[in-house]
Design brief:
Number of strands: 2
Strand content: under 5%
Number of helices: 11
Helix content: 55-70%
């Protein structure tokens, strides 16, 4: 691709990602959207459940499948290196859009918090989950994670950007995957947990746990010091006990 096309492609993919996340906040939080995760059921439960499981499987396959080294090696032969990450961002956004647009609500309520103050606290936790996800991307390299830095490097001189050095700033000192921790908070921080919401929460939690295992295997092969980091720092949520154990070994 020409340099300016790659740049426009990267910017367009990023803008679509931002729009998808904005709608995701409304969709999963039942806020300001005509159709949300807890919309009224319109199809039989069995058919709705089958559709939803298929959407979750597609989401997981796209996110983890495209992140594997073997797929990246194949993609590098058909996609310009500077556009690889933008392509991942684009397809990830489309996978989430499909999940939200085609999701089939299910009837039933698992729990419902009636106290107004408690509901507000839970919603505050929900927004904290989104904030944690975005904050974690800026702690590393937000532009690189979403393909913009690669597109800018190509536009400016056609040189390939250097891969960011491994570091553990901010939240990464206390948990290895703060973005995934934020995602789990978003899924489970709901004052009213319907069956529909529970299905997506369980499904995406299962995907996150499996996806992390695959990602960390790749990281250990690529980064020899990642094993030590994995031993010292909890996976998803801070652990005082683990930090004390590590400190005692010093």
């Amino acid at each position: 691709m020409k340099r300016w096309i790659i740049l426009l492609y990267g910017v367009a993919s990023y803008v679509l990602f931002l729009a998808t996340m904005a709608y995701g906040i409304a969709f999963f939080g039942n806020l300001f959207a005509a159709r949300t995760i807890d919309a009224a059921a319109t199809v039989p439960v069995g058919r709705a459940l089958a559709m939803n499981i298929g959407l979750l499987a597609l989401f997981a396959l796209q996110h983890s499948g495209m992140a594997r080294p073997r797929f990246k090696a194949w993609a590098g032969r058909v996609i310009a290196p500077a556009a690889e990450r933008s392509t991942y961002v684009l397809l990830s956004s489309l996978a989430l859009i499909l999940l939200m647009v085609l999701w089939q609500p299910l009837g039933g309520v698992v729990w419902s918090v009636e106290n107004i103050a408690a509901r507000q606290i839970i919603m505050a936790v929900y927004f904290f989950g989104w904030a944690l996800m975005f904050w974690a991307t800026f702690l590393l390299d937000h532009l690189e994670l979403f393909g913009l830095r690669q597109a800018l490097c190509e536009f400016r001189g056609g040189s390939r950007c250097m891969e960011p050095a491994f570091r553990t700033p901010g939240a990464y000192r206390y948990m290895r995957h703060p973005t995934n921790a934020g995602w789990l908070i978003v899924m489970w921080a709901s004052p009213t947990m319907t069956v529909s919401h529970l299905v997506v929460a369980v499904g995406l939690t299962f995907y996150v746990l499996c996806g992390i295992r695959l990602e960390e295997k790749d990281l250990e092969k690529r980064l020899p010091y990642y094993k030590q980091y994995r031993r010292k720092v909890p996976m998803l949520f801070p652990s005082l006990r683990k930090r004390l154990l590590v400190d005692s070994e010093r």
